[in-house]
Write a structure and sequence with these properties.
Keywords: Amino-acid biosynthesis, Cytoplasm, NADP, Oxidoreductase, Proline biosynthesis. Residues 5-101 form the Pyrroline-5-carboxylate reductase catalytic N-terminal domain. It is found in: Cytoplasm. The chain is α/β, with parallel strands linked by helices. 51% of the residues lie in helices and 14% in strands. An eight-stranded mixed beta sheet has the order 3-2-1-4-5-6-7-8, sandwiched between helices. Helix 2 links the parallel strand 2 and strand 3. Helix 7 packs parallel to helix 8 and helix 8 (178-197) crosses helix 9. The radius of gyration is 22 Å and the shape is elongated.
């Protein structure tokens, strides 16, 4: 079980998802503080998760926190950091930013004080599946010792899988995982539409496709092999599956997936 105090600044989709993941992972509600300018948003979260602390003052919210998670949009992160920087204890508090496009060097410049001192800083890109304990989070860090790294990995590991990567791969990781969730949902939607055309009710088709997706992922994880090996197990010469696969490829299926993922990588 995670111990210590965590403050989340930003009660939007990702901030709320991280909070939900922490609570589902067994963290005590009083050990979590979430701060946001929207009082109505905070009230909704407090109704859903009784016991958590809410605050509209970011500086106040950071007091006593061991880890501070900045779950705000990239265009406001500078003002948030300027607001809280003077009240932080760099020797005791760890900073985690999940703002896409604001790299470690940017964060170092924003947090650096007059003496050039820095806290332990993490830049992490999670996806929204952290809310249901099935997230994928890419981790980079600066000025972080072994204890801080272990703690942050423990936190994000409670609601999914983590991968430490070179910062230059963060944008690619976001395309595969964060954007990737939308791409997978689009496939599910298309498959459901096909199921309806074939005679199933929409809810029935969605249940079938969702379970099929779950089964495919489980097979792949259990085997540890290449997806093509699993495809080979369900295709036969002249069979229906290979005909369907070939029709998809003729329509540009694989090329469309590759182009879509590459298009969602931030360009410098």
């Amino acid at each position: 079980m995670i111990t210590g105090k965590i403050t989340i600044i930003g009660a939007g989709n990702m901030g709320g998802s991280i909070m939900a993941g922490l609570l589902d992972g067994g963290m005590c509600p009083p050990d979590i503080t979430i701060s946001d300018a929207s009082q109505s948003q905070l009230e909704e979260l407090q109704k859903e998760w009784p016991g958590i602390s809410v605050c509209s003052d970011n500086t106040q919210a950071c007091k006593g926190a061991d880890i501070i998670i900045l779950a705000v949009k990239p265009f406001v992160i500078k003002s948030v950091i300027e607001e809280i920087r003077g009240s932080l204890d760099y020797g005791k508090q760890t900073i985690v930013s999940i703002a896409a496009g604001i790299g470690l060097r940017d964060l170092e410049e924003l947090f650096s004080d007059s003496r050039g001192t820095l806290p332990a800083i993490f830049h992490i890109i999670p996806n929204t599946a952290v809310k249901v304990g099935a997230g994928m989070s890419f981790v980079t860090c600066s000025n972080a010792g072994a204890e801080a790294r272990e703690k942050v990995l423990e936190i994000f590991g409670t609601f999914g899988k983590t991968m430490i990567v070179d910062e230059k791969l963060l944008d690619a990781g976001m395309a595969l995982s964060s954007c990737g969730i939308a791409y997978i949902f689009r496939y599910i939607r298309a498959a459901v539409e096909a199921g309806v055309e074939l005679g199933f009710k929409p809810a029935e088709a969605q249940r079938i496709i969702s379970q099929t997706m779950t089964g495919a992922v489980t097979l792949l994880e259990k085997s540890g092999g290449h997806p093509e090996q699993e495809i080979d197990k369900v295709t036969t010469a002249g069979g229906l599956t290979i005909k369907g696969l070939n029709t998809m490829e003729e329509a540009g299926f694989s090329a469309a997936v590759i182009k879509g993922i590459k298009a969602s990588v931030k360009k410098d």
